[in-house]
Amino acid sequence: MLDFEKPVLDLEEKLHKIKESNLDMEQKTFKINQIKAELHELKTTIYSKLSGWQKVQLSRHPDRPHSLDYIENICSQFIELHGDRKNGDDHAVVGGFANFEKQTIMIIGQQKGRTMKEKQFRNFGMSNPQGYRKALRLMKLAEKFNKPILTLIDTPGASPGLEAEAHGQAEAIATNLQEMIMLTVPVISVVIGEGASGGALAIGICDRLLMLENTWFSVISPEVCSSILWNNWDYTEKAAEQMKLTAEDLWNFKLIDGKIPEPLGGAHKDPEKVYLSLKKGISEHLNELKDIDPRKRIEGRINKYSHIGIYEEIK
Amino acid sequence: MSKWYKKIAEGIPSSSIFKKSIPEGVWDKCPECKTKIKEDKIVFQLFVCSCGHHFRIGSEEYFSILFDEGKYEELFREIVPKDILHFEGPQPYKERLVSEQAESGLTDAARVGKGRMNGVELILVAMDFSFIGGSMGSAVGERIARAIDYCIQHKIPLVIVSRSVGARMMESFYSLMQMAKTATKLALLGQAAIPFISVLTDPTIGGVTASIGMKGDINIAEPKANIGYAGPKVIKESTGKDLPKGFQRSEFLMEKGFVDMIIERKNLKSTISSLLQLIIEKEPID
Ligand SMILES: [Zn+2]
User: Fold this and answer.
1) Is A314 a member of any domain?
2) Could you tell me if residue A103 is inside a domain?
3) Taking Cα atoms as reference points, which of A64, A19, A63, A65 lies closest to residue A39?
4) Phi, psi dihedrals of residue A64, rounded to the nearest 5°
5) DSSP for residue B17
6) Per the domain annotation, does A144 fall within a domain?
7) Cα A13 to ligand 1 centre (Å)
8) Is residue B63 part of a domain?
9) Is A245 in CB contact (< 8 Å) with chain B?
């Protein structure tokens, strides 16, 4: 449970108790309707003006759907493929061919776990170099057979470990960036949770960048930002505000191509609804992209990334 | 002293910016061997202690050391940073930019120079660690992007001397996107088959390593430089253990296959120019 969710959960609990109580029918109905109205109002107040930090917390909500949940629910078939053909198979990245609305696509997603055991197995969604290299291998496979690519971003960042460095995660990330720019097939990336640092960008060079409402994408997590700038974690909340990292912020800066709404309270409150809107979003962009000549598509990608940045030119 | 050595030392202009902070002939104390170093000696030794420790130097020094007679034309100086996000931090980014600029005489953390290296015409980008840790924000990204465009347009090689903590946090998503921007330009440089030599110096960390640093056609490291993606402090915090000796140092990266060679500063110029001459196969102009 997140701090700011407490009043909602308390009220939901109260509602549940009344439903279970042995009040007479008329009284019960009256009370239930009263609390439902109250609950709706409370939810609207709390969830419609979430701060940056609250959205970061929602993006990490333990009940939130992860990559494999989305894959399972927006595709009719998915065959997972494994390994980078160099060094190993990274469990923080999943990928494979899938059937999306009667066409074959390649899906690559960063995967988190739910139980402690799963979390460790997935390395908390932090890829090792093997993960980026597996992702690139699958993208090249998609390119070879002319299949569009969908990447799902959900990572707190690259793996801060000895092995990851020894295996060259900087090289792996840098290689992905360069290779993705030149892919001849359409690439759509969706931030479904956390999008932190080069670890996220390594599968995020795309023709269209979409974000779910309660997600974020930035150079670093607010905690690490606070720790680097202020030397402690006390300013995490402030950092989260200043970094302008939410879907809404990036949409306002015209840095993303679509913002996908979530139900009040976050994706986990009504996953089916999110699956539907995500499916719709992907489908629209995919259809547009498929009609563009590959060379033009690459040109567009090059153009987009060549012009990103805000600076001044003095004379 | 070899003639060659002398030539390089003479190439350093006496008005170099590094002289400003030197107290009475003593330049600094070597963190490795603790020797106090004399000013004239350290300049002559290209800021390398007799024990082999390579001091961190900036763009002006690299331009002096690497360009013939220290002569170059600076390009894209007109591109300067801007605080688009109104980022506050402990010191507002806008104010920090002004004070960093006043203190360093630089406008941002990377400079682009055009000149010749043993006769080979090229573009040299060098980063200044003294400017917010050599971090890459939009202005640095744009300067590098234009440097690469220039190389493509004029068909001349690119050398980037990296020394950076990575992407500049105060520009958030925009700074992350400079990785994408520089990678895009490097991909185009690659398609044009124009050589790119990446020189990694202490330290090269984070987004700069993961976009530019590791993608040289040839990667050269100065001895014992800290090179990696996650910073040593972050790794230490997350693993809860001290890092093994030599971890993330040039020699470690060489062993793991991520750099081609480790070259002492005094040999950088001859190594780079020889490599470029071998690749270009054209007589350099004297
Ligand atoms: Zn020394």
Assistant:
1) no
2) yes
3) A19
4) -65, 140
5) G
6) yes
7) 68
8) yes
9) yes
Do A24 and A139 lie in one domain? The reply is no
Work out the minimum CA distance from A22 to partner chain B, whole angstroms.
53
Domain range for B215 is 56-282
Q: Is residue B9 part of a domain?
A: no
Q: Does B35 reside within a domain?
A: no
Give the distance (Å) from ligand 1 centre to CA of residue B35: 6
The amino acid occupying position B58 is G
A1 CB near a chain B CB, below 8 Å? no
Same domain, A84 and A11: no
User: Which residues in A lie closer than 8 A to residue B87 (C-beta atoms)?
Assistant: 242-243
How many Å apart are CA B32 and CA A52, to the nearest integer?
44
Domain count along chain A? 2
Question: Considering CB atoms only, which of B176, B210, B243 is closest to A218?
Answer: B176
Residues A218 and A286 in one domain: yes
Q: Are A158 and B230 in contact (CB under 8 A)?
A: yes
Task: Identify which of B285, B112, B104 has the alpha carbon closest to the alpha carbon of residue B185.
Answer: B112
Chain B contact for A232, CB < 8 A? no
pLDDT, tens digit (0-9, with 9 covering 90-100), for A186-196: 999 999 999 99
Does residue A102 sit at the B interface (CB-CB below 8 Å)?
Answer: no
Q: Are residues A197 and A260 in the same domain?
A: yes
- Per the structure, the complete domain to which residue A22 belongs is given by 3-49
Q: Hey, which residues does A194 pair with through a beta bridge?
A: A216
Residue B81 near residue B139, CB atoms below 8 Å: yes
Of B80, B248, B252, the CB nearest to A314: B80
Question: Chain A partners of B252 at a C-beta cutoff of 8 Å?
Answer: 166
ipTM: 0.94
Same domain? For A93 and A26 the reply is no
Pairing of strands B120-127, A258-260: unpaired
Beta bridge partners of B210: none
- Interface A-B, measured as beta-carbon pairs within 8 A, has a size of 191
Give the closest of A168, A173, A250 to B256, CB-based. Answer: A168
CATH number at residue B212: 3.90.226.10
- All residues of chain B having their beta carbon less than 8 Å from the beta carbon of residue A167 are 256
Contacts of B89 in chain A (CB under 8 A): 229-230, 242
Local confidence pLDDT in tens for the 286 residues of chain B: 233 334 444 444 433 444 444 445 677 889 999 988 888 888 889 999 999 999 999 999 999 999 999 999 999 999 999 999 999 989 999 999 999 999 999 999 999 999 999 999 999 999 999 999 999 999 999 999 999 999 999 999 999 999 999 999 999 999 999 999 999 999 999 999 999 999 999 999 999 999 999 999 999 999 999 999 999 988 998 889 899 999 999 999 999 999 999 999 999 999 999 999 999 997 766 6
Q: pTM (2 decimals)?
A: 0.93
Per 3-state DSSP, chain A is made up of helix, strand and coil in percentages (nearest 5) of: 55, 15, 30
The domain tally of chain B equals 1
